[in-house]
Amino acid sequence: MTIKLHVFPLSPRGFKVLFAAEQLGIDYEFVFLDFAKQAQRAPGFTALNPNQRMPAMEDGDYVLWESNAIVQYLAALKPESGLLPADLKARMTAIKWQFWESAHWDPAAAPFMFENVVKAMFGIGAPDPAELKRGTDLMARLGPVLDGQLQKTRFVAGDRLTVGDISLGSTLLAAEQAKMPLQEYRGILRWIAELRATPGWQKAAAKGK
Ligand SMILES: N[C@@H](CCC(=O)N[C@@H](CS)C(=O)NCC(=O)O)C(=O)O
Q1: What is the per-residue pLDDT across 95-124, written as a single tens digit (0 to 9) for each?
Q2: Residue 67 Cβ contacting ligand 1 at under 6 Å
């Protein structure tokens, strides 16, 4: 049975699972979840994810939501990829960055995406300076942490691409349009350029066009 991924592909959290699936070469069905039609609130989708948020995954009768859990699930289907390393310490280092993304980095990146990209996309008002200031303050604290790692290693968990890079990199899908203050972070800029050049990123980005 083909895995179904329910995604609004212009959202970093949706893009994340497409990037993982494409990078892994997983055969999947892309189900476009149309935010413009509030498809996340439809009864059929609510039955899959009671949070009424995407992404969600179906693998036969098995349903999974939370983007980072989906990324791990997909990576576990292809252990030979190394995206979810077999070695316990290497695996936990990659997963640590996914937790950090979910708990810290995503809340810092989200205000820029919402205020500068989503509001324009759906015509729902002007950017709120207080929200952008909140994002700027959060990112000033977190940017050096991510950049510090990427000044030392090619990818977040070392010299190989892992689920940590998939999760963190996807938050920067539209970093320029979102006006995220990343210009000083040479490590982050070098790394995101490399991620954007991967076949998985390119194919996932094509889904948003
Ligand atoms: N922690 C969740 C967050 C999912 C989430 O917030 N998705 C947003 C889009 S980026 C959504 O579906 N929003 C729809 C809504 O709030 O109505 C994950 O990573 O999967």
Answers
A1: 999 999 999 999 999 999 999 999 999 999
A2: yes
